């Protein structure tokens, strides 16, 4: 698995073409890799966001904030996927 395939943005531009987007989602070939790649992209960007937010107070705070934001986004994602009715409440 290459880094380029892991961080692929192939699903983002197809939102303008709904038929092609739903066809890509319903195909099973490479779907797990795409989901993992988008999750890795989410973790990377949320870590970078946390580092930028925490960088005002020093390096240690920046790293802790980066990890904290990435973990919180992951926990929200797990909660949402495991209990979809939690969004309705």
Overall description:
- 69% of the residues lie in helices and 0% in strands.
- It is built from four helices and no strands.
- Helix 3 (31-54) runs antiparallel to helix 4 (59-82).
- The radius of gyration is 16 Å and the shape is extended.
Note poorly predicted spans. Answer: none
Structural class based on helices, strands and sheet pairing: mainly alpha
What's the β-strand tally? 0
Radius of gyration: 16 Å
Principal-axes shape call: extended
Sheet bearing the most strands, described? none
Number of helices: 4
Strand percentage: under 5%
- Estimate the mean pLDDT confidence: 80
Helix fraction bin: 55-70%
The run of helices and strands is HHHH
Amino-to-carboxy terminus distance: 39 Å
What key attributes describe this structure?
89 residues; mainly alpha; 4 helices; extended
Describe the SSE topology.
Layout: H1 3-6, H2 18-26, H3 31-54, H4 59-82
Short structural summary:
The chain has 89 residues and is an all-alpha fold. Helices cover 69% and strands 0% of the residues.
């Amino acid at each position: 698995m290459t880094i380029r395939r892991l961080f692929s943005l192939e699903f983002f531009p197809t939102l303008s073409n709904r038929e092609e987007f739903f066809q890509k989602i319903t195909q099973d070939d490479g779907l797990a890799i795409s989901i993992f790649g988008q999750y890795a992209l989410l973790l990377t960007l949320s870590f970078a966001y946390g580092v930028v937010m925490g960088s005002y107070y020093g390096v240690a705070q920046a790293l802790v904030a980066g990890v904290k934001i990435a973990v919180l986004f992951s926990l929200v994602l797990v909660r949402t996927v495991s209990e979809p009715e939690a969004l309705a409440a």
